[in-house]
Prior knowledge:
The structure holds three protein chains of three kinds. Chain A is an alpha+beta fold. Chain A has helices at 26-45, 47-50, 92-110, 124-135, and strands at residues 2-8, 14-19, 58-65, 68-74, 80-85. Chain A has a five-stranded antiparallel sheet. In chain A, helix 3 runs antiparallel to helix 4. In chain A, 48% of the residues are buried. In chain B, helix 9 (237-253) packs antiparallel against helix 10 and helix 13 (335-359) packs antiparallel against helix 14 (382-406). The longest helix of chain C is centred in the N-terminal third of the chain and has 23 residues, at 30-52. Chain C has a single domain (29-174), classed as Trafficking protein particle complex subunit 3 (Muramoyl-pentapeptide Carboxypeptidase, domain 2, 2-Layer Sandwich). Chain C starts with 6 loop residues before the first helix and ends with a strand. Chain C is α+β, with helices and mostly antiparallel strands. The chains are: A alpha+beta, B alpha+beta, C alpha+beta. Chains in contact: A-B, A-C. The A-C interface holds A 10, 55-57, 74-79, 100, 103-104, 106-107, 110-111, 113, 117 and C 43, 46-51, 53-60, 151-153. Chain C: Belongs to the TRAPP small subunits family. BET3 subfamily. Chain C: It comes from Flemingia macrophylla. Chain C: This is Trafficking protein particle complex subunit 6B. Chain A: Belongs to the TRAPP small subunits family. Sedlin subfamily.
Amino acid sequence: MIVCVAVVGHQNNPLYIQSFTEADDALKLHHIVHCSLDVVDERVNNPKKSGPMLNETFLGLLYPIENYKVYGYLTNTKVKFILVTTDLDVKDADVRNFFRRFHAAYVDAVSNPFHVPGKKITSRTFAERVSTIVKSFGFSSAG
Amino acid sequence: MEEYPEELRTPPVTLASLVGCPELHPLISTHLLSEQPPINTLALPDFSKISLFNKKVDPDSTATSPSPSLGILKRDWLLKHRTKLPSVLAVLFPAHHLAADPAYWLQLCSHLDFIKTVVRGRNIKFVIVVVIQTNADEISEDRMIALRKRAEVDAKHVVVLNPNDTSELKQTLHRHAHCGLHSLFFSALFKGTCFEFLTVVSWSRLASSISELAVAYYREEGRRIKQRIEKKNISSVELIVRYCFKVAVYAEFRSDWTEALKFYEEAYHTLREIVGVTTRLPAVQRLVEIKSISEQLHFKISTLLLHSGKVTEAVTWFRQHKNAYKRLVGAPEGIFLHWEWMSRQFLVFGELLETSSKIIQGISPIIQATSSKPLTEWEYYSAYYYQLAAHYLSEKRSALELTISMSETSNEIDNVADSVVPSVYVGQFTRLLEQGDKVDMLPLTDEEYIRYAVSEGKRFQDSLEIIVLLKKAYESFNSMKIQRVSSFCGFQMAREYFAEGDISNAKQIFDSIASLYRKEGWVTLLWNVLGYLRECSRKNGTIKDFVEYSLEMAALPISADTGVQRDSGPAGPANLRQREIVHNEVFELVGGASGLETNEHPSNLNITGDESLQLEVDLVSPLRLAMLASVAFHEQTIKPGTSTLITVSLLSHLPLTVEIDQLEIQFNQSKCNFFIANAKKTQSSNGIQQHRTETAPSLSLESKKWLRLTHDIQSDQSGKLECLSVIAKIGSHLTICCRADSPASLDSVPLWTLDGCVQTVPIKDPILVLSGQKSTQVEEPDPQVDLHLGASGPALVGEIFLVPVTLVSKGHDVYSGELKINLVDVKGGGLFSPRDSEPYATDSHHVQLLGISGPEGEDDSQLYSDKIKKIQQSFGLISVPILKNGDSWSCKLEIKWHRPKPIMLYVSLGYTPYCNELNAQSVHVHKHLQIEGQTAIVLNHYYLMPFRRDPLLLSKNKQASEFGQSESLPLNQKNVLIVSAKNCTELPLRLKSVSIEVEDDAEKTCSIQHGSEELLNPCLIVPGEEFKKIFLVSSNMNISKLKLGTVCLRWRRDLGVEEQSASTSTLSWVVTKQKLPDVNVELPPLIVSFECPPYAIVGDPFTYYIRISNQTQLLQEVKYSLADAQSFVLSGYHDDTVHVLPKSEHILSYKLVPLVSGMQQLPKFSMTSVRYSAAYQPSNSSNSVFVFPSKPHFKAAVSTNNRVESVANE
Amino acid sequence: MVREVSESCVDSLLTEMVACYCNRFYANKPELAARRIEAIGYQVGHQLSERYTMERPRFTDHLEAIKFICKDFWSELFKKQIDNLKTNHRGTFVLQDNKFRWLARMSVDPSIDNASSVEDNSAPTPENKAAQAMSMHLYFPCGIIRGALSNLGIPCAVSADISNLPACSFVVRIKA
């Protein structure tokens, strides 16, 4: 189950962060998302470590912590997408698919002329779309 | 890791036992320990102690055990094999026991028999060591063989040892030859030092024997147990685990790491299988046992993997281990045991990783993207494990607290707990029941066990442990520059400190974290941290911090529900309501109401009496959120004394409206400071009357709305007027001092920019928003002094040109006035040309400021020489004396042109109109003037031959075509040099003299007549007129470069009507010099001279002589021709060739009859010297004669001098 | 799902936008108008680059990003690629479009073929007024390029050069 998704700007500022848990541990998830930025940095700055995944937008599993797994995605515009899930067994393809759809939703959201680049995404449409994508995570890989 | 027993932490070491000759035991032990691999020894003082090794009744060694085993691993098994049960027994006999007395031998034999029986039961190997004490000891071979047979050991396991011998090598050699015991002994050498070697050899022989046997022992033992596993008829799975463990340990004894690893893993997997199966123990304890054994196995596996450098495998293994047991939480009341166990797993693995990464340098984690579950970078960092260990430990703590709170009967727990001890099996506990002398071990129920565990758990201070773990992680991440995770660790750590009451530590860490969250705009996290910080300052009683943190919190961009509700620390839920609460709390505090006297918080925050709190908000302060000031002048420059408008805009992101009592606007010119008072709050403006106070109808600062105030302002002080800060007074105690910002450079407020709110601008005027500045330039007052530059006409090169400068004060007094003079090339180039190689530095300037002469009529040189502060070639500073209103002052600038060049003369006067130095407001007047520089006189010169006398100059002929060659003059002839000076200006000039200055060394080479004669009266040359002067030059030296000298011209401007009055002595003459080019002096081989009468009369014949004189020592053949002329009839040869003898003349004579009157050209003569093949034609000018129509009548003779002059003037 | 928009609409919109800012909002302040128009272009470029770089591996260096602008980005905008790309290898790139679509339908006074760059609008003499009006229209594409590159993490300054019409060169100077 996806417990949290986040969009983080190129200055590592949160643009959108939404948790999907019943339990009220948003703060902890914020911490987890924030910490994951360090892995993104490390992976991007030391490309030789990441080997064949060089320059791919999908960064893969960033790190496992406690009961969560954190996945990352870095767009060409240095915007990071973070996904936190509790699933133990996650298929890479599912995550990739998730991020692809999420990216599309993000692009549509920021293409709104009333959206100012670098500002938090407050669009309700975006939030709805994200929650749809989150709900369908793992069920369909066709997208 | 430290809490593990030593035998588990370190790899097992072979154990050997010694018996007999106890005095040698320490020596042997030390030696064996220093072996590689080391061997531990167990020294038995005498043979009777061997019975220790006697086999006890071992339940599991009886092949088919009657009852299922009570546990998996015995707690002491490993220790036993490492300290009690040797693999090899070394039996030491003194040599003389073999040799001498049969009684000894018998005793020896009985010992041997006893040992044999004991050892066989245990399968222990043994070695016989024969100790040679003295050199006298002789062991016969028979005895040795007998011994061997008796002991039933292989020959190589009987070792002769001489621990302290000896210098007598011979005997040793003999003995060894005799006994034939040890081949190595034969290599003994002849020097004392080598004895060491000999001993060592025998030592190493002993050690290798022992280790060889030990390996054999462990291998056999291992094999024995392995067979049991393979038989597959083992009653319980627990036994398989135990056997696998044992096999692995035996393999470790003999350093067979691969096999050890294999069996540890086998044991581990088997163990994992029995988790759900076994019912041997009550559930909680069963899980505890399994977990502690898996922990041991896992520890062993990880250690082995890491030691062999397989970091990735180790990490993967750990991940599996963690995942396999993560869900085995167990009964709810025992959850804390699970978390404790988990925490320990992470801690231990982290420690292992840390130590191994110290050994194995530079592990480079490579993420295998190919594998389905790739490892991540952090799983290679020990800090990651510490962090999680801390996390699980805190889980444990809360679980434990929960358990404690559920079981209230604490007193009796302690009684039970006292008697609980670890049982013989790993991971099991029993109750010790003492009944008199009898001690019984009773199994525990789960309930009892939990009680015991709880009481144990209470003894530990988990939070300290958590802090230690987090600190490790924090520092480690920090050192790797992984700042966000380290901040998170720091945050958790600070939270622990906070809970522990260590406020100063907590605050320090929270502060450093807050800055990161501020920087990156993680508002919810910042909110949380600030909440803690606020509580810290509340506890510390630092009211300023408290107010600052509170204001920042209240102003954070938290509008919608961020979802952070629970577990948010003292900050409370992050939402608008909470912000308002914080806001109200802080303003109540500073409002001076009563401090924060609530029931829960006996406040140490109080503002009393006159105390006031001033907050500084600079450009980087986080409090910019709470209040921000933007100031814009409406005009970029203002006149002094006139007023302009200034707009002060304030913005606050506090959730509620703030009522400001009074604003103070501060400028760099403190006279301009003013106050804006709130009309609603009438307050006595006490003692601030020296500054202007405006009143605004309302000063309420609404949330996220600019409060714009526009007032007029004026300044008398010229220069920059900048608004420094805006100080808001809120309530009686709080002032907030905001550094002023320009709207043009207004950085958007941090954090809020990221929020989706609409941004507003500080000023409505769109132009001012983009370009408004917080500072303006106050112009200086208009000057009331005239500066006049009175230069007339162009300047002439060479003369000292005077530019009169006049200052007339018209309304201002002039104090500390200063004139700045600057000469600038109009065309932009420099005024001097360093490339010109002129000898004097002054000449390198094309135009030069020479100096200044003071007001007319005064002796300038004395009075004002000191006033000229600085005169450079193109720049000067002149002090101006104090001038009263209406006074005037003047001076003259002396400027000299070296080149004809236009320049721009800039003169600026700076002065202050008041004598008060402090209020020095300088006023500036600028004037500039372009002055042309002109060349006054152009000098020219040319040479003429003597009249009708033309030498043949060969060089001239040759180089006729080439220009730029120096002119040639004939040797020993009088040449005429004509120098002309032309006035190129538009002014009349007076010429004093034209002379040729001959350089000293050139004096003898030539003679110049009329060289330095002065004119009697200075001669006036009108513009365009040319003045000529004639010199006679002759040289008698045949040199190619004759330096003639320099033409020197003395002149000045014509003074016009004043010319008469000016006395010649006082006027300075300008000297213009021009060097004459060098000339070539050569001997002409032929000179042609013409002779004819001074005039002719029409029809009257006359004789025209042409004299060709040969100057050389050679016969010269000359071809000549005389052309026909229309105005003459002539007789004689037209063409001919003549030979002229050396140093002689040939004269041609023609009779000519003029036909026409007037100036007539004589027939043209031309000749060619055959020898030099040089054609020659005399110049036209000298070849004419005036023909009178009839005979004239002259009154007087004409002076030759004038005739020459008139000819030259043509 | 490809949504398209009429080309003439875009042309009209651009013309109207420039006219609006130059003649109405900032009638006497061409610098401010230019800044506003450039800023609009910046946002457009910023958002378009977000969309057009989807499904594409990250660029490793500046050149890759510039090439992206020249090829894919330009194709998306103008249905053609940049015709010529030059660089001095020190952070300056010249992107030349031989027939820049947004200038193609603009009438040019044939007597004026002297150089006029966007940066240089100092002398409003009547004869280069046309060139100046044209350069006003170039702030928008300059802004687009700058916005796209900035969003790709390359801060830069972009100017346009129309010295040889109808070709148009965009000069990108990357800020160190």
